[in-house]
Amino acid sequence: MYSLPKIELHCHLDGSLRVETVRDIARKEGIELPTYQVAELKKMLVAPFECTSLVEYLQRFALPNAVMQTKESLQRITFELFEDAAKENVKYLEVRFGPLLHVLKGLTLTEVIQSVIDGMRQAEARYEIKGNIILSCLRSMSVDSVFDVVEAGKNFLGKGVVAIDLCAIEEVGFCERFVAPIALAKEYGYRVTIHAGETGSGKNVSDAIELLGAERIGHGVFIKDDPFAYQLVKERQIVLEMCPTSNVQTKAVQNYQEHPIYQFYQDGIPVTISTDNRTVSDTTMTNEMVCVQQALMMDEPMYQAIYQTSVVAAFASDEVKAWCLAQYPKKGN
């Protein structure tokens, strides 16, 4: 499985920085860090495998954001993420990030978005990988701020930006607050993926689908405890962007063996595999595949089916999807 092509649909930019890059940018821009030793810095950027909760996991994002406040840094960090993905044979990568987190030193939302797209295009030109950008909005921010992101990103639709997302701390019933800005985003042509069911509420998943029109769900683990949400996802074939290592870390599940991805797959629910955060979870797509293979006995036919599901679910053009499907080795080759 190491050499097989991969598709990643759920990867956060600010959770996937190279440790050395954090140090280099901090030195260049005069940003004070608690340490400049790579080994010690890594401990501050990588969440412990035994996190107590999603809250503890999310604490690892403060330091990366400090070095993501200039056009040059955003472009470099994006390029490096795509470069790292390409080197493990990821053929298509959707990167999500919160533009409002990167305006602390004066960048406009337009400049932030353009810088990330520039980094992606630079990588696409150099490596055999294609990508798109998802604009994330933190649920802890105001509803008006979501409108701001939707408006700033609409001119980039079809030019690198494809979707809108809601993320961060998950409270029960959050969807009701964001109906209006997500509806406007859909009107403009954004696709919709929503973080839901990462912590204990399956109802958030059904709300994301019914109130916000989510086409995909980030995580969705807790539909396992909500029969209505489970059936809704199954009947409407809503794709779940599952991130096994992250889910173990945040205690959505206790271990890989208890992860519901195999149960969902066996029952006809469309599932995909992603890293969530390559640095915070200290993982890669290859590692995620191996963990699922070892813990849940994923065989090659299952992986091929997940690959195909991922391509179909991608917020990509038909041309890119056809190219991705063509990358999978045919039997007998």
TrEMBL record:
SUPFAM superfamilies given in the database record: Metallo-dependent hydrolases (SSF51556)
Positions of the catalytic residues: 198
Enzyme kind, highest EC tier: hydrolase
Positions that bind Zn(2+): 10, 12, 195, 276
Cofactor binding annotation: Binds 1 zinc ion per subunit.
Annotated InterPro entries: A_deaminase (IPR028893), A_deaminase_dom (IPR001365), Ado/ade_deaminase (IPR006330), Metal_Hydrolase (IPR032466)
EC assignment: 3.5.4.4
Keywords (A to Z) from UniProt: Hydrolase, Metal-binding, Nucleotide metabolism, Zinc
Catalytic activity: adenosine + H2O + H(+) = inosine + NH4(+); 2'-deoxyadenosine + H2O + H(+) = 2'-deoxyinosine + NH4(+)
GO biological process, any: hypoxanthine salvage
Domain Adenosine deaminase: 5-322
Cellular component per GO, a single term: cytosol
Important for catalytic activity (site feature) positions: 219
Cofactors: Zn(2+)
One term of GO molecular function: 2'-deoxyadenosine deaminase activity
Amino acids binding substrate: 12, 14
Stated role: Catalyzes the hydrolytic deamination of adenosine and 2-deoxyadenosine.
NCBIfam families tied to this protein: aden_deam
Protein family membership: Belongs to the metallo-dependent hydrolases superfamily. Adenosine and AMP deaminases family. Adenosine deaminase subfamily.
Entry protein name: Adenosine deaminase
Gene symbol of the encoding locus: add
